[in-house]
Amino acid sequence: xxxxxxxxxxxxxxxxxxxxxxxxxxxxxxxxxxxxxxxxxxxxxxxxxxxxxxxxxxxxxxxxxxxxxxxxxxxxxxxxxxxxxxxxxxxxxxxxxxxxxxxxxxxxxxxxxxxxxxxxxxxxxxxxxxxxxxxxxxxxxxxxxxxxxxxxxxxxxxxxxxxxxxxxxxxxxxxxxxxxxxxxxxxxxxxxxxxxxxxxxxxxxxxxxxxxxxxxxxxxxxxxxxxxxxxxxxxxxxxxxxxxxxxxxxxxxxxxx
Length: 257
Ligand code: BTN
Hints:
alpha+beta; 6 helices
């Protein structure tokens, strides 16, 4: 479990309002919305116009300049590692449902939950467990920000809604839409189980791709074949046989050409 520590000191004066069953705290600036959400109750959300220490997966810095959606949602969830990977796919589905409804096409997911347009990253998801039973889902979506200006190595790596939509939603509207889909998917998961959304999740990976898995140092190549009902990653070998790897076994997935 992570400890948010001194970072939870709240900056002054968030705008606070309720919407779609959520209580939303909106800050002009935050270190990381995930850290500000760490002590909040279920169905709270934190949004910031910029993040000064945005956090990505693998302890990476997440560029969070003005014009992107930086949002964290506190979700009630009793998780072990299997349930956590199912939740992460479910949240990926909620993000994709939002973006599809907004009119984005050519969208796909890359395991476990990167959201891409073609091969460029449009959105990312970072799950934190600060308090047992409460998952903080941190969602970053590039909208009309310029990530490669602050981080030149991101050139040609990122996508933004501004590049693919003729008319952009307001960030507050996009946040409300993400939260609406998130609540719906999480409630469906809780009441009907993962099987109910598995087909929809597996439809989001796009065309089959060759990948290399890093299984804690051991490398395995094959074709990514989606996930199974336990949230395990399926790797197909040349004979067509599939092997399932629990999400916690896979340190990294790299797409290869
Ligand atoms: C990734 O590496 O793909 C995950 C990126 C997650 C970024 C979001 S932005 C809102 C929330 N606050 C953070 O500090 N990170 C997440």
